[in-house]
Amino acid sequence: MSDDPDVNDVIRFLREREIVHFQRFGEAIELAKQRLDQKNVYFTNPAFDK
Description:
This protein is mostly helical.
């Protein structure tokens, strides 16, 4: 919606940064789940519910 190239560049940069942050946060959650499952924490280990 903007015709100003400087504004467009900043918005593009912020969108890209937000996407990367979202991806890294998702990876961190997966790593945390794997680590908790290794320790057999009941709350996050579905193997205990069988």
